[in-house]
Amino acid sequence: MDQDEYESLLELTAQCQLMDLEELRAGIKGKTRAGSPSSDLELTYNAMEAEARATLQFVQDRRIARGAGSASQEDIDLINIIAEIERREQADRQYALSLSVDPDAAPPSPSVASPLLTAGSGFGSAYRDNQQGSPFSSSSTGSGSNWPWPTAESFASSQGSTSSQSSVYNPPKPQASTSSGKSTFVSSILRLPPGRSSVDCVICGDFTAQAYQAPCGCFYDRQCLAELFDKATVDESLFPPRCCSQQISFAQVRSILSPRLVQKFEAKSEEFKTPNRLYCHNAACSRFLGPAASTEREKSARLCTQCWRTTCSFCKSVSHASHVPCETDAAAQQVLALGRQEGWQSCPSCHHMVELDTGCYHMTCRCRHEFCYLCARRWKECTCPQWDEDRLIAQAERRIERDFGVLPAVARPAQVEARQQDIFRMAEDLRVNHECDHHLNGFFRRGGSGNCESCGNWLRDFLLYAGLRALQTKQALIVNWVKAEHALSRARLMKEMVS
C-alpha cells in the first residue's frame, strides 16, 4: 500500500467515524436536562470526535509536508546554478591573486563549459552524480583543502576533463527530517480559525496570532498550554489536562511541547494512572517504583535506581525477607484513627485521606475516582443521602454573605426576613445545580478581595464566580432584596402619613 492509498484509507475511516457519531448523538439528544453536566457517554463521544478530527488533520499535514518536499527537490537545479556562479567567481579571484605573483600566469580557458551549464546535460543529473560524496571531502576539490569551493588548481585541472562529475558544493539530498516535519505540524496545530487574525488566550488573556484550540473551543497560546501540562505533572488534580471538563489530547499537542516536558509528562502519566502506587521508602527520594502488590503473597523487594535502596512492594517500607511478615506502620494507623475520629474518608482507589468541607457527598478524588463520602462505595451504587442539610445551609449562607455582605449587628426585621429568603433560595438552587458548570456558561468577575473556594487562597484584586446559574440566582436575589427595601420604604412612608 503506497502513501496515497494509506492516507485515503485514514481519511475515509475518520469521516465514517464522524458520521457514526452524528447518528449516535442524534439518538441521545433531548434525553438529558438542559444545563446538566455531560454524561460519561457524551464525554466518550467527544473524545472519539477529537481523535477523528486529529486523524483528518494528520492526513492533511502529511500531504502538505509531501508537497513541500517535492518543491524542495525542484529547487535543487536553481541552487546548483547559483553554486556554479559562485565557483566561477572564486576561480576568477584565484586567477587575480596568481597574476599579482606571476604576471605571465595563464588564465583558465573559458572555452570548456561547466557540466551544470551545458545545454542538455541536465542540472539534476549533475546533482545526482555527485550526491554520494561529501561536499567537504578532498575529492570535491583538486587539493586536500576542506574549503567547499574549488581552488584555481582544481579549476585548471578540471578544464581538460570530460567527466560529468561537478566540483561544486552540492547540498545534501532533502529528506523527511524530524525538525522540518515538526515545524510543519506545529504550524497546523497552532492555526487559527478562518477569518481570524488573532485570538485571546483563555489563561493569560493576551491576544496571539498562534493558538491551540481545545476540544471545548477555548484557545491557549503555546506558553500557557505548556504550563498547563507542566502543572499537571505536579498537581494530580489537574491530570489529565482538560478544559471545560474535556480532556486535551496529549498525542495531538506533544509536538509543540519541549522534549523535556514530553518525557516528564509521559513518566507522570504512568504514575498517575496507577491506582495502588509504590514509592521508594527513602523520604529524601520517594521515586515512583510502579504498582504495589495487592496481597502479601505477591510481595517482592523493589530496587530504586535513584538511591539504590530496596522497598517492600506490599507494606511499602524497608524491604525484608520474604518469609518475614510485613509489619504495620504505626504512623499510618494513627492517621487512620484520627480520620475515623474526625469523620474523614479514604479513597477506595488510591487510599488517600479526604475531608468534606462543603458540598454534597459525591467525592471526586485527585486520582479521578468517584465515590460516596459516607460509605466509600462507588458513586451511585449506594442509597446514602446526597446532602447533609446543615452543610447545605452553611454553604448557602457563605455564598449570600460573599455576594451581598454581612448583615449589620442591628438589622431591620425586613432585612432579616429577606436574608432568610435569599438563603433558602440559594440552598434550593445548590440542591439542584450543585455541579459546577462554568465550562458551559463562562466566568463572571467580581471586584474586591476574598478567599477562593477551591484553593482557599486570599486574592487581593478580584474573584471569578462561575456559571450562568450563579448569575441568574444572584440577579433573582438582588430583585428580592430590592422588593424588600421597597416594601419597607412604603411601610415607613405610610406610617409617617398616618402620624
TrEMBL record:
Q: Which UniProt keywords apply?
A: Metal-binding, Repeat, Transferase, Ubl conjugation pathway, Zinc, Zinc-finger
Q: Where is the RING-type domain?
A: 197-388, 347-385
Query: What start-end ranges are recorded for coiled-coil regions in this protein?
Result: none
- List, in alphabetical order, the Gene Ontology terms for molecular function in this entry: ubiquitin-protein transferase activity; zinc ion binding
Q: Region Disordered: which residues? A: 123-181
| CDD domains linked | Rcat_RBR_unk
Q: What would be one Pfam family of this protein?
A: IBR_1
Provide ranges: composition bias, Low complexity: 133-145, 154-167
GO biological-process terms attached to the record: protein ubiquitination
Instruction: Name the InterPro entries on file.
Output: E3_UB_ligase_RBR, TRIAD_supradom, Znf_RING, Znf_RING_CS
Database matches in PANTHER family: RBR FAMILY RING FINGER AND IBR DOMAIN-CONTAINING
Protein name per the record? RING-type domain-containing protein
Source lineage: Eukaryota, Fungi, Dikarya, Basidiomycota, Agaricomycotina
